[in-house]
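Students often ask why we bother encoding 3D structure as a string. The short answer is that it lets us treat folding as translation between two languages. Here is a chain of 320 residues written in the first language.
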Amino acid sequence: MFKAMDFYIQAFQTLQRSPSSVWPESVLGKAPYKPILLLAVMDLIEEGTITTNCIRLTPTLTETFERYWQCVVPDRSYNIGMPFYHMHNEGFWHLIPKEEKSKVGIQNPSTAQIRKKTDGARLDQELYELLQENQSRDRLRTALVRSHFTSSVQAELHGVSNTTLRIYEYSRWLIEQSQKGERGKKMATRQVQIREAGFRRAIVDLYNHQCAFCNLRIQTPDEHTAVQAAHIIPWSEKQDDDLRNGLALCGVCHWTFDEGLLTLGDDYRILFSDHLHAPTHTIGALKDAEGRIINTPNPSELKPRPDTIQWHREHVFWDV
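And here it is in the second language, the structure alphabet:
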């Protein structure tokens, strides 16, 4: 086991990275894709999101990757498909072809191409087992950070790992509390980033990335989703992160709901303000939502609480 640990520490320290003047000193002037992807994978293993030796391009992996990316190169765009594919050159990362016994060859790797041609990737089994252990995982994470980033950002990167774990723990805690019928209060002392991201992660997952009002469900090839997590009673009013005080809404429905032009009846039907029907407005496909029963989350017992719906009708809705 110790021999294996030394082998993988060396492998992590010597990742092949392309040098270029476009990359800042913080990443040693080399492309940071591979170390950031490995950091994201380790975080998802630690939190229990990755539970088998099969790594797939999921929204959660992309969001975790982006959190690290924004920490070190916030002014540059990224394509997570690049490291996901090219990591196979490191020897410990193996693409899983869709067709058995075939080789995966992708000239310009994108997330769409990777999903088309692979079922994800797997690690060397010995490496995967090492990453299940806290001490081994921490040693590999430290080796990765120290080898590929300057000391000026190393502490921030370790902080991102801690933040990712706390976001996950908060999202799981919210689900447990909401299923018990507890209100998600007493959260004011939590860091805003963790509270907001944890609430968003739980809500978006519960509604399967689909708008509760208009049914819109769109994700980019990089797994960015069109829906947002909306509080029914704003956080500023009740400090209530109970998931039954939340909805997954697309940008248009979220804005219209927050502005009081849409609300819900006690039967979960969508109600329009008369103001929305003004002749000067063009509401397009939104008109099809009127009178529709909203999409409910999974599990359904986490659908909006009646008291939150009533509060919105009484305090936000333009009933004119």
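Translate back mentally: Residues 2-149 form one domain. Keep this in mind for the problem set.
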